[in-house]
Amino acid sequence: MIRQVVYLSSARAGTGDAEIAAILDAARAANGRNGLTGMLAAGGGVYLQIVEGPAEAVESLLTRLRADARHENLRVLQDGEAATRNFPGRLMGFRVLAPEAAGLIAAQLRVRAMTAAEIATALGNPAAVGLAQVALAA
Ligand SMILES: Cc1cc2nc3c(=O)[nH]c(=O)nc-3n(C[C@H](O)[C@H](O)[C@H](O)COP(=O)(O)O)c2cc1C
Questions:
Q1: 61 CA to middle of ligand 1, Å?
Q2: Domain edges within the chain
Q3: CB contact at 8 A, 122 and 81
Q4: For the domain 2-128, what is the CATH code?
Q5: Which residues of the chain are under the pLDDT cut of 50?
């Protein structure tokens, strides 16, 4: 089983595309070493991230994320186990996050559990979660 965590956080003020690109570059390198895959969505001052992999690797990343001053108010929306990965081979996909999408997903998760695949679908076509291809919109 792998562990899948979904969280929302608030980007620190003034976060721009360069910072997000730097986060993604470093995240992809580290995730390859740590056996983690997933997707980051960012927009409207909010991050929504899905991380999946070995339980200890996810736990260790959560500890680092909570200490990272580039965002704050990290709220875990869902923390569970899955038999298979939803983002195999994606060291960290990226999508621009529409603020309404973040609100909708958070509201739905208060009512019921969603799979990472459902969340990815709610964020847009998961097949389009390209790595470098997705332009970082302002
Ligand atoms: C929104 C956001 C998403 C991040 N995603 C990842 C990730 O997927 N993997 C990762 O290793 N680090 C990620 N980081 C960076 C970690 O918070 C941390 O800086 C990094 O793992 C290095 O930690 P260290 O300096 O303690 O070694 C992310 C940071 C932010 C702000």
A1: 7
A2: 2-128
A3: no
A4: 3.30.70.100
A5: 127-138
